[in-house]
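quick one: NAP bound model?
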Amino acid sequence: MAQIIDGKKIAANVKAEVRAEVEKLRAAGKNPGLAVVLVGNNPASRVYVSNKEKDCAECGFRSYEYALPEETTEAELLELIDRLNADSSVNGILVQLPLPKQICEQTVLHAISPAKDVDAFHPENVGRIMIGDFQFLPCTPAGVIEMLDASGIEIAGKHCVVIGRSNIVGKPMAMLLLHRSGTVTICHSRTKDLAAQTRQADILVAAVGKAGFVTADMVKEGAVVIDVGMNRDAAGKLCGDVCYEEVAAKASAITPVPGGVGPMTRAILMRNTLTAARNAAE
Ligand code: NAP
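yep, here:
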C-alpha cells in the first residue's frame, strides 16, 4: 500500500514556520498584511477567500478583504489595485479568480505590483520562475515540491510526467521539477497515447480537472502520484483527478483529495506573503 502524503500536516509545519518569522517582524514593529480582493458572488471563491483569511490569522498576518459587487467595472478594480499597490500596510495582493466576464483577468493580474504579487502570476514573476531566479513561488506547484521534499522523495534524475499545461499549475509545475533536475514530460489534451506517457512516470502529477481521469493502468508500479485536481464527484463530494483506491494499490506514495495539495497551496501563499513582507521591511 502506498505511503499517503499528508498535505494537511506538511502545510501546518510550513504555516508554523511562517508564523515564527511573522512574530519576529512584529517584534521589530512591522505589521505585515495581505489584501484579498473578491469580485462577485461565486460561492467557491467565497470559501477560498475565507480560508485565506483564516490562514492569515493563523500566521499572524493582518488580512484586508475587499468584496466588490458582481457589476464592478475593470476601471474600478484597477483603481483599487493602484491604491493597494501604493499602500505600505499591504504587503501582498491577491485577486481571487475567476473574475466576472466584463473584467479582463490578464489586465488585472498585470496591474498588481510584482513586489506584491504573492500568487506569482505577473509576467515578471513568471519570467523569473522560468530562469530559476524567483522569490515568489507559484503556490500549487511549489506546494507539490514541498510535499515531495517533506516526504523524502528525490526528484533529481526521476522521470516526471505532468498532465496539464495551464499557466497556474501545469507549466510552472514542469518548470519547478526541471529546476530540481527531474526529466520532465508535459502532457495535454492533444497528447497521443497519454497512458504510454504516464506509465513512464516515476513521479506523476495530475492537473486536469476531471474526476477519475487517472486510472491504475496509467500508472507504473511504485510511482509517486500527486493529485492536484479539485473536482466534485456525482454525489457532490470533493475529489481529485486520480482513482484513488486503485492507484494507491499500485503507487509507492500518493496524495489524497481532500487533504493533499489543497492545503499546501494555501501554505505557500502564506510563505509568499512573508517573503513580500520581509522584502518591504529591508
Ligand atoms: P485548466 O486550466 O483547465 O487545465 C487543465 C489541463 O488539463 C489543460 O492543459 C488541458 O489540456 C489538460 N487536459 C484536459 N483534458 C485532457 C485530456 N483528456 N488529456 C490530457 N490532458 C487534458 O485547469 P488548471 O487550472 O490547471 O487546474 C487543473 C485542476 O487542478 C482543476 O481540477 C483545478 O480545480 C485544480 N487546482 C487545484 C489546486 C489546489 O490547490 N489543489 C490549485 C489550482 C488548481 P489543453 O491545454 O490541451 O486544453
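Residues 140, 163-166, 168-170, 187-191, 194, 207-209, 228-231, 261-262, 265 surround NAP (CB under 6 Å).
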